[in-house]
Amino acid sequence: MESTMNELGSNAASVLDIDPKTSVGGGVEDVYGEDFATEDQLITPWTVSVASGYSLLRDPRHNKGLAFTEKERDAHYLSGLLPPVVLSQQLQEKKLMNSIRQYQLPIQKYMAMMELEERNERLFYKLLIDNVEELLPVVYTPTVGEACQKYGSIFRRPQGLYISLKEKGRVLDVLKNWPERSIQVIVVTDGERILGLGDLGCQGMGIPVGKLSLYTALGGIRPSACLPITIDVGTNNEKLLNDEFYIGLKQRRATGQEYSELLHEFMSAVKQCYGEKVLIQFEDFANHNAFELLAKYRTSHLVFNDDIQGTASVVLSGVVSALKVLGGSLADHKFLFLGAGEAGTGIAELIALEMSKRTNTPLEECRKRIYLVDSKGLIVKSRFESLQHFKQPWAHDHEPVKTLLEAVNALKPTVLIGASGMGKTFTKEVVEAMSSFNERPLIMALSNPTSQAECTAEEAYSWSKGKAIFASGSPFDPVEYEGKVFVPGQGNNAYIFPGFGLGVVMSGAIRVHDDMLLAASEALAEQVTDAEYEKGLIYPPFSKIRKISAEIAAKVAAKAYELGLASRLPRPANLVKYAESCMYSPVYRNYR
Ligand SMILES: NC(=O)C1=CN([C@@H]2O[C@H](COP(=O)(O)OP(=O)(O)OC[C@H]3O[C@@H](n4cnc5c(N)ncnc54)[C@H](OP(=O)(O)O)[C@@H]3O)[C@@H](O)[C@H]2O)C=CC1
Ligand SMILES: CC(=O)C(=O)O
Ligand SMILES: [Mg+2]
User: What's one GO-annotated cellular component (predicted)?
Assistant: First the structure.
């Protein structure tokens, strides 16, 4: 067989009409075309070896530190390389949590967690899964924002793949340098809109790394199947350009054709390297690129924009869940947004879509229940011509209104949603106005990190005199107001994307459809219990997230099967059980 291939030469694969990347001759995938390559073609000389001894201790995927048993120490040449004691994983976890809790600064906790991930991957995930409510703010918002701002100074080891303009023309080769071959989820950013912190260039890498650690901890995707990528096209952040420790290209951002050519090369290379079924999550792109990339690739690739679609799904879920407390149906409510970018218009569109489906009313009619304010004021018809395309559907017949407070007073919304990236914009007057004409105003201050939140939980509860139902993008502690404890919910796409991704991966979905986002949203809303509503919550606690993710994955997968988008056949009978069975567990394995 091999000699026949050699005789056929470099065109062997195409002559035989075989895709060298996906063919499974001898049961082995020739992912990088090594078997088919001729002498004049270049390949990457990957080797696979069994780690032992010192290198086993330095391999984060297999290292167990002091938890290696006596038998393993003997069998794997570890004797003498570790002190005599053997600890259980539970005890290691207890010790590490004690030490993390001693750090005063969140960034120190972040660095301790990153060090742990580099040293012992399973222990890192064990900590994160078992202590999710405590550690989520460390590896994710708000601390990840600070980490990105300081990424150059705290950088120790690369954690993902960097693709810069320097690699234009050879992006495929760069992808092939990544050591893992069975990639299922990529989170990619170009660093232009990191949380509400603006352009952090190459230092945005903290975001794909953080999001993917949640894919594993919250959604059960294997760490080896996750690939964080930062595309470095420069930065317009002067501070970074002048920072001697900046890790990225020191040039202003490439735009236009140069930008889209690199992105296109990247999108094509991903498909070539990992096939059709790798989920590409766009994260924290600026809106002028985010909408365009999603529109351009949603029909040819398995893509998902977390800021537009994931956020929409989680907020719709919170609103639907809040209806139990607010009363009325979705269409009975009036929505006002501060911020009309990716998050704002993405959420608005999904709410309108759900309203339209529930009431059998045209989408355009449903949009009329939803108003948005941007940096220039209320989006109204008279501004139509000057509006970016994603704002135009929201240009309603209304007189111009300059400020949020005026818009609140003029429109009397029942729901106020902040996605402006601008902290302190839900002022006392705004919250008081919302509470003056609503028995229970729903107020969501979604901007991240905490410094950018439109208002704090304390402000929402005290200014509304305990009337507000409140959720925020970054976590806030419970608030005691006039003897009652209010527990604020976290309206963050972290509830959705891990389970959503699991559903996509386990069903072998080939495209993302809006109905799959609606399914995820519904699955999340169903998880809130009466006891949680009692506390003022509209989202279930993150401590239940693995169960929630399995439910979301099952509903998303079911929708993919229903729509004919799932390629994993036959369809498992019990999708929740199947989702659970697919989930990565961080418990140590025994080595022979
Ligand atoms: N909780 C969650 O899960 C998520 C939260 N977010 C957060 O939402 C925020 C926005 O993200 P995104 O939508 O992607 O950003 P965009 O840049 O796409 O949109 C920001 C919007 O806010 C408007 N805006 C900015 N400042 C003001 C102001 N002072 N008054 C009124 N409007 C203002 C902008 O107006 P203009 O268009 O005129 O410039 C724009 O419409 C970020 O902080 C991000 O962290 C995002 C995704 C998920
Ligand atoms: C949560 C998130 O995706 C953001 O703030 O951008
Ligand atoms: Mg984001």
Answer: chloroplast
The catalytic residues are 140, 211
Q: Which residue has a Cα nearest atom 6 of ligand 2?
A: 195
pTM over 0.80: yes
- For the domain made up of 309-491, give the CATH fold: Rossmann fold (3.40.50)
Query: In Å, what is the CA distance from 55 to each residue of 63, 186, 201, 224?
Result: 9, 28, 34, 18
**CA separation for the pair 585, 216 (Å, rounded):** 9
pLDDT (0 to 100) of residue 28: 55
Q: How far is the CA of 384 from the centre of ligand 2 (A)?
A: 28
Range 285-292 average pLDDT: 98
- The pLDDT value recorded for residue 25 is 45
E strands of 128-225, at which residues?
A: 161-164, 185-189
In 3D space, the residue among 110, 97, 104, 96 whose CA is nearest the CA of residue 449 turns out to be 110
The helix/strand/coil state of 162 is strand
Q: How confident is the model at residue 14 (pLDDT cuts 50, 70, 90)?
A: very low
Best residue among 146, 189, 207 to mutate for probing ligand 2's pocket (most ligand atoms within 8 Å of CB) is 207
Give the pLDDT confidence score for residue 49 in this predicted structure.
Answer: 83
Residue 544 Cα to ligand 3 middle (Å) = 22
* Choice from 140, 378, 383, 420 to test ligand 1 binding pocket (greatest atom count within 8 A of CB): 420
